[in-house]
User: Fold these one by one.
Assistant:
Number 1:
Amino acid sequence: MKVAVFSARSYDRRFLDEANGASPTSPPTELVYFDVALDADTAALAHGCQAVCVFVNDRLDAPALHALAGLGVGAVLLRCAGFNNVDLTVALDLGLFVARVPSYSPEAVAEHTLALVMTLNRQTHRAYNRVRDGNFMLEGLLGSTLHGKTVGIVGTGKIGLATARIFHGMGCTVLGCDPYPSPLFEPLGHMAPLEELLARSDIVTLHCPLTEASKHMIDAAALSRMKAGAMLVNTSRGALVDTTAVIKALKSRQLGHLAIDVYEQEGALFFQDRSGEIIDDDVFQRLMTFPNVLVTGHQGFFTVEALREISTATLVNLRHFIESTPCPNRVNAAS
Ligand code: NAI
């Protein structure tokens, strides 16, 4: 069994090779690594492979999926939970096996959410640079005490719950909003409709999936409902937020802080070293000019524990494909 691994970085190779060595398949699985992202133009690299293994910014649209199926590829193994980058209707029509890793250390993303909030609130990123430069002034570093503040969590699934536990433990009032409320949230806070959550929260953090319905859920109207000066955090998917509306809200001071680990057009930027290049994305570049904006490049999941779990679960999914056994992580029309 030959698997083409796209968007492969050194850490993908390390953890996938480790997992492959620890749990060999019969016949043995050969992992072929490609740095490039998968799309209709690069799909041909999977020639001779029976499966492809992809990440968040690989584009499995109709042309890419048709090209893969034409090469005899039978399986798409996602090294992530979200599958908004796969045209599922086409994949299922073509009879492709699509499987994801639904959970890999939700705490990793929740802890990164906390890191973003704490950094932005207490300006530790600026303090670090100042002190290294021999500047010990405190002007401009004023934060607020989070204890007693209200944190609104949009999506109280695995990551939302882990985030709720952290902020509850810090003495914050926690509000949650989810069409399918979890009983596990009950001891941590109160459920509220989105409009109420936006109006009451000092920090709003997004942990729901990107779907047609949730796209741009944080638009100009939602931003105007938020408390003036509140913080918005997005570690979920970029397109949950209308970035142009966010820039307007930052300029008008309605939005006090923005912390994002994901960005609507991140596919053209993230997971690459572009430090020597001119970045053409003017919207992203405008975001970079605000002192109250913090951006990380989709690293919420990036812990040893999560990478180990992603690799192990991906190879278990592959084994289900090889052995035609029921795969609990298979993505189907109802997912
Ligand atoms: P989950 O499936 O456990 O939870 C998602 C929750 O959102 C569910 O309870 C669902 O009912 C709720 N939901 C759906 N639509 C909603 C809406 N319109 N408003 C409010 N709630 C809604 O998923 P999990 O594991 O907690 O992941 C959440 C998201 O985090 C993923 O969809 C993915 O986009 C993102 N993610 C980001 C990572 C990163 O590295 N930054 C890593 C892993 C996931």
Note: The first helix runs from residue 10 to 22.
Number 2:
Amino acid sequence: MNETKEKFKFKAEINQLLDILVNSLYTSREIFLRELISNASDALDKVRFEMTKNSEVADKDLPLEIHIDFDEKKNLLTVSDTGIGMSKKDLIKNIGTIAKSGTAEFLKKLSQNKEDATNIIGKFGVGFYSVFMVAKEVVIKTKSYKPGEQACLWRSDGGGSFEIETLDEPLKRGTSIEIHLKDDAKEFAEKYRLESIIKKHSNFISFPIYLGKKKINTISAIWREPKTSISKEKYVEFYKFLTYDTDEPMFIIHKSVDAPIQFNALMFIPKKADEFFWMDRENYGLDLYVKRVLIQHKNKDLLPEYLSFVKGVVDSEDLPLNISRETLQENTIFNKIASSITNHVLSFLKDKAENSPEEYAAFWKEHGKVFKLGYMDFVNMEKFMELLRFNSSANEDEKGLTSLSEYVGRLKENQKEIYYAVGSSRSAIEADPHLEIFKKKGVEVLYLFEPVDEIVVSSLRKYKDYEFKSVDTADLKKLEKLEDVKKSDEETEELSKDDKKHFSSLLQKMKKILGDRVVDVVESKRLSDSPACLVNSNDAISSSMKKLLKLANQNVEPDKRILEINPDSKLIRNLIEIFKKDSNDEYIKHATEQLYGASLLLDGSLEDPHKLVSEINKLLADSSGWYLKIKQ
Ligand code: ADP
Ligand code: MG
């Protein structure tokens, strides 16, 4: 025998994973079989794909099958397939030495959440290693489909290292995995146990699975069956098989089209957003079949990324079987199928939004974050905009949702813009002085809680004829024209002519104090209660957008903000009196700095809190002195 044994160490993350699998997971261990069968099925799909492309394939006439054999006396279970197999290089690359990207995050999640571990394993796709939950030793024998490749053996006890040797035995194409079961895992060599596990987890595998001599699964492509013949249970069973979700799907979308292009699409929207989406961005897509042959797992061009929460399969008679994955995107038929599917999902959602708003709200809560990324889908822009939802001042609380068409339905007479405010919560936004005039005028404001929201509205620019406008860049002249609905709480007396003059000198004084930190200090028409706020000029980008751009290291032009002062507020009335007595009173300087600092703070752009706090402390020290004097 030509013995060329080589020893390898598992990659560090894989070692950590194995450690958790071997030492702390004792429930639902049966899913290891689902994982091995799914790998066998993938390997068979791959070799079938090579055959449709007319590649040279070893042992061409072998039937495409999965065999499960067991020996109760020896505690031995073997899972074998006639799939694509692995060369020595493939073995080293695929098993043990390279960790998937995101494995570190995955491990963190896994160690936090052991109950759900087995579902997490399936979703994340590190399935092979799960065999070590039940195995004390695993031996893989495999031979690649490429003619002339040597067969190889891989062996490990899951304890840090594995060895590989080339074999001289004349193996046939495919892979067999010998599992030497742990003493506490003998059940997995029992026929009835195995049969029930296969039926439970692997019933929809599209290759025959033999347990001993008996074929276990029923092979049917349910997406090709007429809708009326499929029970809800069957849909749910297929969904669970496809996604490893333990829950039922939120929505089932089954579409069969015959003309002009034939295809079947069976799609699902899960009840919960995929917790791995943001760390494993490649892990989405629909499975693409041509005449029942799997061409590509997780194809990413059938649906745009913002619909990546949709799971499912698409099968077409009208695509050529020998199509290559690389040229799919250039295929006209494929592109027509893709746009039809996208359209169909959007129409489905539109129907839900219109006819079952509660179900749509549940959808929005889970998947809205990803869905919003569709602001760049110019082809489907109109439909996309109708599906957007925001919280708004017209809603009762932060849970309420408003569509753009509802907003427009509530426009005030002469209102031509859609106003929005950005903040971390409803209460934070409602405390924003910029909103005072909107309250006074009864103009609805959309509340944007997530950073991406503002990117969305500023990229969209308009809904129908109405431009989106941030409350801090809103044009006051337009707002003033609208009728008041609310008088301010306390009617304040008008300033006398003389006081008006003093007020405008006070504004000049304040401008001098603040220097070029502000473009101007002016009388406010938008405030009714607060003494001051900072606004951006009409053409400027909003403060929150500026922050986003800074975060992204974009060059942002220096702030050009105007400090607005409300002459009707109590504080400013007092300042006018102080100013009249001594226009150089130190108190005016402190108060101005304080008003400016507090406005920056509300705006979220205060960079140096120390100065603000020391001013506050100084004012408190003074006022406590005065307070004591009054008390005595
Ligand atoms: P995944 O299936 O998500 O890629 P696994 O841990 O289950 O992750 O498998 C790792 C890799 O090992 C597979 O991607 C595949 O390349 C290879 N592999 C596993 N089982 C087989 C098999 N039966 N035949 C051929 N290759 C296999
Ligand atoms: Mg796998």
Note: The mean pLDDT is 89.
